[in-house]
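thoughts on both lines:
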Amino acid sequence: MVQLHVKRGDESQFLFNTTVDASLETVIQQIASIYNGRLKVERMCAEIAELADHGITLPPNMQGLTEDQIVELKLVDEWEEKCVPSGGPVLRKDDIGRRNGQAPNDKMKEVLMKTVDEAKALISKKQAQANVCVIMDMVKEALDQLRGAVMIVYPMGLPPHDPIQMEMEDREDLSGTQASLQVIPEDECQLWWAAKEMQRGKKLQDYIGKNEKTKIVVKIQKKGQGMPAREPMITEEQHKQMMMHYHRRQEELKKLEEADDDSYLDSDWSDRQALKRQFQGLTNIKWGPR
């Protein structure tokens, strides 16, 4: 199997296994699906953490308003009584006014947060360091775990406008958000290797040869963004090790220089001719009047 180390910029994303005779069209689509799926998991994890702290999302027309403004405008959250967490709610006010403050109790919160940690671990960038390849089934498993936890805590479901519900139904609206800049649509996805764009109409072996044991670093890029920066000759960890070695060597040279200091040769006790001059009466000779 050929192993592709997928990066976005200089940041490692995940490992992907394929074969040299695989179509690049298929490889790019699979990599884009995994990449975007991981982003979806991360967005859901962030929102579920907010859900655990402050309850469901308020209707869009109530978000950001103070309690006085809500009363004055006579606005009512019709989903507050429908979407009640298991075991009853606990009041935890949302200071930014995005969620209703009817949070799950500590036991249900623990269920949500434990599942979030497990889902993050499945698609973590640390998997690449552990030489574990991320496949689409792992992304789906992480999403299923998150859906299951939300259903346990909110058996009546979430409001249709809640970002978590929208993510689960694949109708999330990311327009105008920072998250939208990270997503790469499959038809706009490009792979780069060795400063070359890997064209969709070709096979992987057209670029890397027929060795199935090849390992390469590829950069995922959005169409139109141009060629990504080339990989540095040494990694950040190698650079740190080189700097540490350099500083250790400098310290060693400094100590050696101090040990080789020959200024003591100017001292009287180190003069080899002192005894001879003393016998010859040539000590304490001064020129000029006394």
